[in-house]
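Example record for the data management plan.
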Amino acid sequence: MEIEKPLVITQKKAVDSDEFWGNKKRIVEIIGEGSGDGFKLKNANLPTDWQESLDNVKEIGIDRYASSISSVCNLQGYDLKEITFDTNKILTKLIIANSNNNEVSLELGGNFREVERAEYTTKNLSKIGSAVLMQAIISNYLSTGWGDKTFQYGYIGHTSDCIGSYYPSELAIPRSINVDEIVTSENYQESFKYDANNIAGRFGRDIKNIEFTKNGLLRFAEVNGVNGCYYSLENVSAGKNGRRYHCHNVDDARQAAALHGIVASYINSLLDKQSYNP
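Corresponding structural encoding:
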C-alpha cells in the first residue's frame, strides 16, 4: 500500500522585480488547444505594478491559505501536493494530483527575449477539470493580492452538490468601463460572434445565441446544452450587481469553459481598447 506523502509548503528567496516583469490586469482564460493536447492558461500573470503593491499579499497566512486550497482541490477530486511562496508571499509554484497520482503543475516564470516574465505557466494540463481548478486557484490568488473595487479576476466556480454546478464567480464588467456610453460597434459585434464560435468550438460546444445591448455590452451568450445553457447580464447598470454575469444550467466543465472564455475574451477586449484610448 502506497503511503500518501504530506503536503509540502515551502518559502524561497524573494522574486526580483527587475527580473520578473508583470503585465496588465486581465481575466484569466482557459485556452482549449482544439487538438486533444490539453489546455493552457492565458493572462495568468502578476500585474504590471505587482512589486509596488504587496501589502495584501504579505497578509496571507501561508498555512491557512494552503489548507483552503487543499480543501478546494479535494472537493474536485484532486490533492494539493506542493505549494511554494517567496518571502513576500508571492506564489511561485503549485502542484496538484488526481486519484491516479497524475500531477499538474503551475509555476511562475518563462523566458521572453531573455527576460523573465511574471507569468504562470502550466504543465500536464490535459484534463478540463484540472484546467478549471487551476484557473480558479490562480485567479483567486491574484484577486487576493491585487483585486480591488474596480477589477476582480473572475473565474469559474464549481460546486458538486447540485445540477448546474458551474457558475461565474466575480465575473463582471470592470467599473472603469462606462456602461452608459457606446462600448462596441456593430462591426466589432459581428467579428466577436465569429471569435466566440471559435472559442466554443475548442471546447466541443456550439454557439446558439449571442446578444448585445444597444450600447454594445455583451448581454447574453448561450452554448448548446439542456434547457438553455448561458451566461447573461441580468440588469445592466452602473451598480456593482448590474455589472455581474449570471448563469443558467451550466452542467459541465466544457460548457463553463466555453462561456467563461467568451465573456472573458469580451471583457479583456474592452480593457485593451481602454488602454489604447485612455
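Summary line stored alongside the record: The chain is about 30% helix and 25% strand.
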